[in-house]
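Handout, section B. The chain below has 435 residues.
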Amino acid sequence: MTIAVAIFVATFILIAWGKVHRAYIGLIASLTLLLVGILTPIEAFHRLDFNVIGLLIGMSIMTYHMKESGLFDWVSIKFLRSFNTTPINMLVLFTFLGSLVSAILDNVSTTILLSSMAISMARALGVSIVPFVIGIAIGSNLVGAALMIGDPPSMMVASALDLRFTDFIIFRNKPSMFFMILTACAFAALSLKLLTKRYFKDVKGVKSHVLREFEERALIKDKVLAIESLIVLSLIIFLLSIRDIYNIPMWFPPILGAIIMLLLRTFSEASLNRVVRPVIKEVDWRTLIFISSVFVLTGGLVKTGFIDLLSYNIYNICGEDVILTSSILIWISVLLSGVIDNIPYFATMIPLVIDLSKISGIDVHTLMWALLLGGSLGGNCTYVGAAANAVGVGIIERNERKISLAEFSKIGVPFTVVAVSVGQLLHYLFYIFLA
């Protein structure tokens, strides 16, 4: 157990150091675990979660084609055009839009995509780009767990508990993660009105010609590709929704959708490079290697009994108190997701929550929703704990000026507290008080 924990902690330290890509660190740590004999190669193979891996590959290819068609640009600009309002309200809309788009597109891509539009609008209005880019980045971080296909943590939870796509929307006839997180996002976005007033002192309203120029850019680049993407995405969601009825493996719908898209492009594209590019360049293979290695490392913690030990310690503190246990899971997730990567965190915590549920008798779904809420709604206190925040700060520094950690946190910390508090209240209401 000591050796397994030491390898796991060393992995975290090296990832935080940031000098070597986390995929190589995870791979070396996994091989070390095998070399010292804690896991056999067969045990390590069985620890891999092919549902998560399949979802990531399939959805990466799907979002690439949706992005290439111009569909995300079109939806974003039409959304903003529908709300001709003041700059500070436009900031709220950009933030909420970042949340909506990131339910399908990854957080970093969402931040890059929407920031280009936000910068153009801010410059046309003569205001700072800082609140717009920060708003988009922190908004995009909130919704990763709202849908099964959003971020790796939600995929990992869905695989561990054998959930359907629709379980993230309605679960046991109650609003599930999608509604709880979107409601929390709406309140957090509104809090930006108070947090960012100083950036909008001299600007009264958004000129109609500014929005008109944006609407002229809202053209679908490839209508056929956009229609194909929407039809195939609908097929994926449908199959994920009925998979428990027909025993469809979770990895199958997204992989099938990706294959269909690649075949369609093969018949319609003149260049083979454009057909194979989504597989070679857009699928983040290094992240897949890292996720696989984390599953192996967590397997070492499970086999040596460390996860059981942690579960019993939490049970000794909380007993069968579902409110206290949920609170600890939520706020520990908030604190830790601000400084460590959420993939190894969730890989460690998911088996712990399952064990804790068995020991305490508390419903495993109630505890897992608490874990997802804290891990999804947290992490915005600084720009260190989330890749989208770091990317957003980089965009600001390339286009306007340097931004300090303190300036970011003046927006990020209150935003996070509002989001988590609202999410926690809804979790208590639907899954504890009305259980």
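Note. The two ends are 37 Å apart (CA to CA). Compare this with the example in section A.
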